[in-house]
Specification:
Largest sheet: 8 strands, parallel, barrel
CATH topology: TIM Barrel
Organism: Hyaloscypha hepaticicola
Protein name: NADH:flavin oxidoreductase/NADH oxidase-like protein
Keywords: Flavoprotein, FMN, Oxidoreductase
Bound molecules: flavin mononucleotide
Order of helices and strands: EEEHEEHEEHEHEHHEHEHHEHEHHHH
GO molecular function: FMN binding; oxidoreductase activity
CATH architecture: Alpha-Beta Barrel
CATH superfamily: Aldolase class I
InterPro entries: Aldolase_TIM, NADH_flavin_oxidoreductase, OxRdtase_FMN_N
Strand order of the largest sheet: 3-4-6-9-10-11-12-13
Number of domains: 1
Structural class: alpha/beta
């Protein structure tokens, strides 16, 4: 099986197999400290038992003023020895069976909802340019955009320098705690994705105006993180495929990825979607197809949301270690994706929230036949009242947001010492 083969990243980090638990915000670190805590450790100990090739943590926010959600972990709240002790315990829990773990670092930019972060009611969100979120043309969509997120403030150069410093501080904290690396969240419409995209970055200074300048903030973070850590510390990045939410052309995206690769990354994770267009939350099992030994390319493409984009990136950057996340549910689909050369690693999020030991128990378990090695999940539907409201006044984020809340609830069950609800079809 290709999926069970070891891989070594450019920094020297050895992953025992190709299955990566993708980042999922746990929503378990309450204000005011937003520190890792005992419940989170319990959840991560479950994944540590699972036989994964690598764990990616849920997104850790780098700015205490701007969180992605009110219960996110925060990296820079304090660097006191008590806090660092908690971080070390977290790193040890994840890696107690040797599974390398990488912390995902994020700044939400304009996607920080009201109440998530230490800021005044009238303090605006930050973004490369003052471009408001657009959830559709309904009245409710307008209200959500204006009241929950508001019109962002275009960042000054000082704001940008501070954000870079905050990412570096987060990387340093992760490094000192014993994590094996960091992944910069440059996907799903958060701050770094906002900089990369011409739709949200209208700047004409050093940080906008051309594809290269739009990538400048990312390049500076990568170089500074490398300086602040070590050559064997893993630096990855999660980026969106070319889609309507980024508005980038393929040529511009390839140019940006070229610069990012040159700056020195150890892996590139491909995803897609944003709050305005939550493709990453699509539910592949709403229309399941039965896997067969001869998995056709079209079936694999349907199962793996972003594989064809990854194949284009592979053609341009043959040596980059690629993770594709989104939609994988069957061993056969995973094998076919690896075989196609489109990716080296398979990212799995929702299946990992339902079955934390999925690699050991199913995908890598040679006693389970290929045809049976799958994890089909029941689609999560909005409760009737919201679904009616969404039909009446569509808000693009609603369905995807509800799916995330459902799966974060499964992680929270793990934190309470319970099993996740087995929501397999
Ligand atoms: C509860 C939940 C929280 C998530 N949080 C994050 C996150 O913090 N960072 C991130 O990059 N993606 C996040 N995602 C997206 C996943 O990493 C993944 O890209 C997406 O769910 C598609 O993969 P899947 O089909 O295997 O679930 C989250 C998804 C879920 C369900």
């Amino acid at each position: 099986m290709l999926v069970s083969q070891e891989i070594v990243l450019p920094c020297g980090l050895r992953l025992p197999n190709r299955l990566v638990k993708a980042a999922m915000a746990e929503s378990m670190a309450p204000a005011p400290t937003h520190e890792p805590n005992g419940k989170m450790l319990l959840a991560y100990k479950e994944w540590a038992e699972g036989g994964w090739g690598m764990l990616l943590t849920g997104n850790v926010q780098v700015s205490e003023k701007y969180l992605g959600g009110p219960m996110d972990v925060l990296s820079s709240s304090s660097s006191s020895s008590d806090v660092q002790k908690l971080w070390k315990e977290w790193a040890s829990a994840c890696q107690e069976n040797g599974t390398p773990t990488v912390v995902q670092l994020n700044h939400p930019g304009r996607q920080s909802p009201l109440g998530a972060g230490k800021r005044g009611f009238f303090t605006k969100n930050l973004a490369p340019s003052a471009v408001k979120l657009n959830f559709g043309s309904s009245l409710l969509a307008g209200v959500v955009s204006s009241l929950i997120f508001g019109a962002p403030k275009a960042m000054t150069e000082d704001d940008i320098s501070l954000a870079i410093d905050q990412f570096v501080a987060g990387a340093r904290q992760s490094f000192e705690a014993g994590f094996k690396g960091v992944e910069l969240h440059g996907a799903h419409g958060y701050l770094l994705a906002q900089f990369l995209s011409p739709k949200t970055n209208l700047r004409t200074d050093d940080f906008g105006g051309t594809p290269a300048k739009r990538a400048e903030i990312v390049l500076r973070i990568i170089r500074r993180v490398r300086q602040a850590t070590s050559k064997d510390f893993c630096i990855g990045i999660k980026l969106n495929s070319v889609d309507a939410s980024s508005n980038n052309s393929m040529a511009d995206t390839i140019q940006q990825i070229g610069l990012i690769v040159e700056a020195g990354i150890d892996f590139l994770e491909i995803s897609g979607g944003s709050y305005e267009d939550p493709k990453m939350a699509a539910q592949p099992d709403a229309n399941p197809s039965t896997p067969t030994k001869e998995v056709k390319q079209s079936t694999v493409q349907r199962e793996a949301f972003f594989l064809s984009f990854a194949q284009t990136i592979r053609a341009n950057f043959p040596k980059v270690v690629l993770i594709v996340s989104g939609g994988f549910r069957t061993r056969l689909g995973m094998e076919a994706a690896l075989e196609s050369g489109g990716c080296d690693l398979i990212g799995l999020a929702r299946p990992a929230a339902v079955l934390p030991r999925l690699p050991k128990e199913i995908i890598l378990n040679e006693n389970i036949k290929d045809e049976d090695a799958s994890v089909r999940l029941k689609p999560v539907f909005l409760p009737k009242v919201y679904s009616y409201l969404n039909w009446l006044m569509p808000v693009k984020i609603m369905g995807g947001g509800y799916t995330s809340v459902y799966y974060a609830g499964q992680i929270q069950r793990m934190g309470d010492g319970l099993k996740p609800v087995d929501a397999r079809l």
